[in-house]
């Protein structure tokens, strides 16, 4: 059975799925997206991702393409048709198709909706987490509205490629104050020397990670201390542990920053425990 994508009301073979050349997402990055982790065929942190999607659409003044219930049906149907039990489902909503012009189309257009899904082998993901990943740092060069989850990801693409070329899995952006904002596709965390779990505050120009927010709850429930206090790359290297969070990475230990080991240079016990706790919570609350 081949892969299936959803494009504007149709379930289509993935290889043939296409959008119009004047889709504003394609031409102008005038589009937003969401990614849900999938456990046992169900959407993890469903509510948080739907809420952020509504917010992103609102910031762009793009109407909701369909109700949340209808969207849930589509996301689940793409998962079902692709027989995905564990993995990720991707949703993109663009302003729609219109003759190319920077300003919004004057005639009303319908938002364009694309959904794709991919399987992830849980054993392979656990093996990656057990090894941990390296990150590099790179100067923050993105626009001022990283709180909106738009498909305009060129700085993230270039940062991720730079990471890959240096044998790392993620790039952390560092702002003009010398503090880490977030990763190219994840939020950044450390367990500092005082045993406090730290991640950047959302007043900064970062995406309000859904995994980040859920993990804050998990941390408090586990009796650990969390602080939205930023950190520098040097503090990360001196930290006991570091990790990243996201719908793709879940909670993934970081073992090196810019080639220098974090802690013992292996995944730390707290990051490993938080990964297990997060996955347990995500599975139990998935819908
Ligand atoms: N920051 C950026 C730039 C991202 O692209 C992502 C996820 O793709 C995240 C953070 C993590 O967000 P979430 O936990 O909602 O997946």
Walk me through this protein's architecture.
- The chain is α+β, with helices and mostly antiparallel strands and 287 residues long.
- Helices cover 32% and strands 28% of the residues.
- The protein is built from eight helices and 15 strands.
- The chain has helices spanning 24-28, 46-60, 68-81, 122-131, 154-165, 210-221, 233-238, 269-285, and strands at 4-7, 10-13, 31-39, 42-43, 87-94, 112-119, 133-139, 170-174, 180-183, 187-191, 196-199, 225-227, 241-246, 250-257, 260-261.
- Strands 7, 8, 9, 10, 11, 12, 13, 14 and 15 form a nine-stranded mixed beta sheet that branches.
- The chain is globular.
- The two termini are 25 Å apart.
- The relative contact order is 0.14.
- The mean pLDDT is 98.
- Pyridoxal-5'-phosphate is lined by residues 35, 182, 185-187, 207, 209-212, 245-247.
